[in-house]
Fold this sequence. Notes:
Catalytic domain of cyclic nucleotide phosphodiesterase 4b2b; single chain; globular; alpha+beta
Amino acid sequence: MRSPKENSLDNKIIExxxxxxxxxxxSKTAKLxxxxxxxxxxQDYANNVSIKRLSYNDHGPVHMRTVALNxxxxxxxxxDAGILTSLEKEECGSFEDSLTAILLAAILHDGGMxxxxxxxxxxxxxxxxxxxxxxxxxxxxxSIEKQVIIRSLALEGISGHMGNRTIHSLEAGVILVADxxxxxxxxARIPMARSDRPKVGDIHKYSANSxxxxxxxxxxxxxxxxxxxxxxEVGLFQIEEVLLQKIAASTAKVYIELYARVNQNEPKxxx
Length: 271
């Protein structure tokens, strides 16, 4: 059973996608991913391990859907600024193909949390591989070449989403930043409620709990502007040690402005 929040995000993902490209391969991919029982079970159990076993933040279906929506928003802003995706620039795919890879990577990037935190991005990649292959066989039955290209690009996004491995495509760089942008206090609500004594990872919960809002919009000097609003300076950990590190490792860094403010203070510009 999908939660109301998941259903709401599903609708937002489809709606955003249809503002970027007409109904086609990407929208078919999105519907297959969002309705897939195996993916749902993987996401739910990943969240169980993350929250109940490890006392980390949300790494389940809501988080992965949020990352997908964040990534689609950024892809639209980049396109509006005339920035070509790696597939377009290399002349081996279209903007819609890039969106398809983005969706696959976002929806499956944290499946490895079902095994554990350490190297979870690599666990995510091999768990995602057969699912990606199954979905792409339905979306591109006429082209094994497209299946291979999009699968490889999606796996780069998954394996590179922690920022500790070098990535090369713009699409993977967008996934990296989209993941870092999901840090509002809602991600820490459940582990905060369950907390009864100090544990490893608490700083992630407390810092995320102080993040009131993250907005992704058009920048003044660059295509993308990220604005983070905090209720407490502890949220600076989330920005400086998580989001900023991911942006620094991203191929999309040159296209991003980053601002943060505490309460009603003047925003501080990081990038």
